[in-house]
């Protein structure tokens, strides 16, 4: 099935992709015989943008097979849960929602229920599904998404349940159909997996090792998106800064960004997520020098204390992080928007060490933060560490952090009063029935009164009133 390119990463060969295309036809015949009307599929996605992109490929394959789509699980003939393993809360939601389908399956035995994604790649989770949820027909892992047509065919035609969870480092599969959720904004995976093994994180275990798509394939897909009228393209990877290290010859992420920025058309490039240990001044220079690259840097620091960072196996320190941030500010000035991730209450963290996180937040003055109380993940080193601080105490620390960031965000917003931004209008707003929402180059949200016909276009918007996490504005008159 697999062939070796002149590089470390395994690539799914063309014959395997053609085989899956044949299974699309075979499965299409099976569902036409099984269901009196065109069957509907409901794909439920949890977790990160990479999972969203995976679900778009899942829907692309299902579309080729002949399924329609619904968001109502109780009118679907196929229900797929694409799961996330990053935090316990997400796992609990999956178990709860799958469990609620037990009676629906009993009443509708022709319905296929499937689970895939990061949760399923963990053996103890797969064992729990097998034992406690016998009505789940199909379970498959992150490495075999491209084989969905074959796996679904097996689930439909065999009387036994299908579990496909290979223990492997992963591969690159090109040519898999995609059905995008939006016709103006696109997710574009450029690499998969992670080599970092942060002590709290399950991702390397469930997503496999880092593997990069060929630059030519990424550029060709981006070019096609622009030609179809897409205005915002977000490059995805567990650590985009590691892009290209496994290619031969090697291609840096900065080089890929420059190539994409030179494509013809009116569009904007975003990317996530960056790891500070691999973030370079070259990348920051590339962002600063290219108009089509958004001036938004999401650079998770997780903790402001060096001992905690070492325990997290983050491979950088506070000083290195601040050096990068200050360089980015120097190069991009007020145009730069900075966001980050923070874990509160890592095992063994003291309040004095947590205060180093508060001081870093105060120094950098992030636009916004994604903050989480530590959630132990079975199979990671951090889950085995002593964790003496109570959940109640961690909750107090968490509130202290979010209160600080709320004040910083409100102060940051004030400087945008009366400024004009080129914005991508992406959807309906929340400030009122007639408001629509737009995103600036720096990832700030501006809501303004306007027609929904503007959704999917770039507009120049003037800020009229800064709020805490959103700006109120008005469309600039021509």
Could you explain the architecture of this structure?
The protein is α/β, with parallel strands linked by helices and 478 residues long. 36% of the residues lie in helices and 21% in strands. Strands 4-3-5-6-7-8 form a six-stranded parallel β-sheet, with helices on both faces. A five-stranded mixed β-barrel has the order 17-18-19-21-20.
Basic shape? globular
Class computed from helices, strands and strand pairing: alpha/beta
Tell me the strand percentage band: 15-25%
* Main beta-sheet strand count, sense and barrel state: 6 strands, parallel
Name the helicity range.
Answer: 25-40%
Radius of gyration: 23 Å
- Uncertain segments are 1-7
Taking strands numbered 1, 2, ... along the chain, how are they ordered across the largest sheet?
Answer: 4-3-5-6-7-8
Give me the count of strands: 21
List its traits.
single chain, 478 residues, alpha/beta, six-stranded parallel β-sheet, five-stranded mixed barrel, 14 helices, disordered N terminus
